[in-house]
Amino acid sequence: MMPSVWVLLLNWRNGRDTVECLQSLLDCGGAQVRGVVLCDNDSGDDSFALVASWAAESGVALRLAAVAEALTGVAQVIHGSSQAPWDLHFVQTGANLGFAGGNNVGLRYIRSMAQPDEAVFLLNNDTLLTEGAIDRMLARLCQGRTGMCGATVVYHHGQRRVQAYGGARFQPWLGRARHLGAHAAFDVPRDPASVEPQLDYVLGAALMIRGDCLNDVGLLDDRYFLYYEEIDWATRARRMGYDLGWAPDAVVFHKEGATIGSSSNGRKRSLLSEYHMVRSSLLFTRKFYPYYLPTVVAFILLKSLQMIFHNDLARAAVRTRALLGLSRAP
Q1: Domain spanning 5-254: which CATH class is it, in words?
Q2: What residue stretch is flagged as signal peptide (predicted)?
């Protein structure tokens, strides 16, 4: 018997993509979904109105909770007539807490209601599920000591190209990661036996964690505002004896960077994204691989010099501020 799963989404000023993601969940979610929790990082825009309108039109029961109630699972019912197999819990976090902080509010909320064996599926709000993806990930998660499981994540803007087979391999001496299967043709045969041994972490865009693993490892480290939080989480899990899995036929389309301007192409990455990429890299290295700090810093400096050479001065400046521990803007 597969356990139930709670789906956790995080929104920040991106209500339209969130609604599309919720619709894909409704269409493709599977019978094992017990509930969907949507945390809003104090968007201050029309996100809630868009979600509430969608829920009413789709026959999804909507429950509203503030961050104070997120520790107890208490939620006010906005409308309770549900034709869907699950309720939508909309949690206001009260501030822009970043990826880790915002998801931690949702994780606490879920843990106050969930059974110990129920899984949690962290899903980016700029993704679209495909039929059977959740059930396939759950099936893989139930095997052996698998604590976290990833999907085949495919670029939405080019649906024949892969972003990652589950996750990535991490190079601690450089403080950077390489997505497994990146840019491979979608229809190329995929072999879990050759991919899974290389997994150092599961991509946070579509990450399912088993209930006992979450209880043992704990929440995300919210000192990371953006990036490296899933590497940190997986590193802790692996050091506690959990394995990482990949469900190759669980396909998730990802719009990549729709909210904060992140991109696998460095030239297209926003300055906010650039700043936190460097800051989080240093935080992770100090925490887990302090002996590699000199080579990580040297690599950051080398990349910054390349940006200066290409006259990308704003990007080089924000990286330097992150390296020195300064705020993003003077």
Answers
A1: alpha beta
A2: none
